[in-house]
Amino acid sequence: MEHYFTNSQNLRSEIRSISYENKGQVFTFFSDLGVFSKDKIDFGSRLLVDTILENEKRKNLEFLDVGCGYGFIGITLSLILDSCVEMVDVNKRALHLCERNIKENKIKGKCYLSNVYENVEGKYDFIVTNPPIRAGKAVVLEILLEARNYLKKDGVLWFVVRKDQGAKSLIKNIETVYNCEIVKKEKGFYVILAKMH
Question: Where are the domains of the chain?
């Protein structure tokens, strides 16, 4: 079984497009085999985006989407918040789609290959992630804990995780570094806002 955080040379391609609307903005996302949630925008990502938009009223921010896939979270937030996004992933096919989706939706942003924060150099107003649970707890914790090194002074981390995929133990693991608030609970998903102590 190929996972969406691996790069397979022999994976066939079946491009499809997904339409999505939020706050009167209509988006088109190109997707393909071998990427996360290829046929529809997954519920957790939509809940994460909607929760951030309910809580973040500022514009012209700089933010980072870690494990961006084909770019749904970063592109949607960038357009609606009129902000500049950087998006990173380890999946080359997902990044190729993400580049296409950046152009298609005409946002301010870029995407590039990075294993977690390996190639990331900036500091951000916020970091957002729907972490790749199947990559294992060590990877997820690295994404969450290392985020602090890439946040501006008052920067925050937003993430979504299912209760049955260990949301509570993840919160416990990162509370040494962050104050965590469960901002939204819906259909077994928790959207969590983490601020540095």
Answer: 16-196
Stated pTM of the model: 0.94
Q: For 16-196, which CATH class?
A: alpha beta
The sign of the torsion formed by the CA atoms of 102, 67, 189, 124 equals negative
Ordered per-residue pLDDT tens for the chain, 197 residues: 445 555 566 678 899 999 999 999 999 999 999 899 989 999 999 999 999 999 999 999 999 999 999 999 999 999 999 999 999 999 999 999 999 999 999 999 999 999 999 999 999 999 999 999 888 899 999 999 999 999 999 999 999 999 999 899 999 999 999 999 999 999 999 999 999 99
- The tokens for 7 are 């790069």
